[in-house]
Amino acid sequence: MLTTPTLDKLYTLNLAGMARGLAEQREQPAAYGGLGFEDRLGLLVDREVTERENRRLERCLRAAKLRLDASIEDIDFRAPRGLDRGALLDLARAAWVDSHQGVMVVGPTGVGKTYIACALALSAIRAGHSALYVRTSRLIAEIAAGRADGRLPRLMRAWARTDVLVLDDFALQPLADQAAADLLEVIEDRAGLRSTLVTSQLPIALWHENLGEATIADAILDRLLAGAHRIELRGESMRRAEPAKSAGGDQSPSDGR
Questions:
Q1: Are strands 229-232 and 103-106 parallel, antiparallel or unpaired?
Q2: Are residues 49 and 77 in the same domain?
Q3: Which of 113, 164, 190, 219 is most buried, most CB within 10 Å of its CB?
Q4: Quick one: 135 and 224 in the same domain?
Q5: Model confidence band, residue 251 (pLDDT cutoffs 50, 70, 90)
Q6: pLDDT in tens, 92-101
Q7: CA 88 to mean position of chain CA atoms
């Protein structure tokens, strides 16, 4: 017979999922009474594994700070924007993260670059990796602020440990030499060790001129592009005004998925 001490011991051992599952089995004898010991134990183990994985996903998603609630399953492959379904689904398996490769997503405004990047980051998290989304301009600003208040070493270590770093809106504006050198340090720490996912409105061929002094720009691109997967989108913006909820009501753009 199930006793309160048994449940208490399961919670003490941090097996809350098994404890809840065991209580559920006792409360519903008709559903579980016909199962053998090993089958019921297997269900308890599955419950514990599922709850732990769900908690891990929640923690990783909070830490990732993804800009959009995006998933591969919700991507519109019918839109005429040059998106290769097979290639993207292959990337969703996250082997590129295991291999420490990069992904470059480029295309005009509104074709879904950020949505695709966040969806790939979510796929990586589901596969057991960590991720972090940040706009490139904000990363540069955080480096400057971190250098001023002493947080920079801690920030650099955190970025270096992240399995997938999403740099959104990359190379949109020219960087001063110091900012470009700082960006190189972040990318250098990750080259061959972690994966970087970049989105940009500019074609890759135009990035060089916005990445500071030529030698620094060469070094950044050499590390970013070596072995990287490229997703080059085209077409018109997918953002459309949503129907107003009431006459004269506000309208908001879609996420361009």
A1: parallel
A2: no
A3: 164
A4: yes
A5: very low
A6: 999 999 999 9
A7: 15
Nearest C-alpha neighbor of 72 from the set 116, 125, 103, 131: 116
d(CA 19, CA 48): 9
- Mean pLDDT over residues 218-228, rounded? 97
Separation in Å, CA 167 to CA 7, 43, 224: 46, 41, 11
The number of domains in the chain is 2
Domain containing 33: what range?
A: 4-59
How far is 204 from 155, CA to CA, in rounded Å?
27
In this model, does residue 8 exceed pLDDT 90?
no
CA-wise closest residue to 70 among 34, 30, 114, 38: 114
- CATH number of the domain residue 140 falls in: 3.40.50.300
> pTM, whole model, 2 decimals?
0.81
55 and 85 together in one domain: no
Does some domain include residue 207? yes
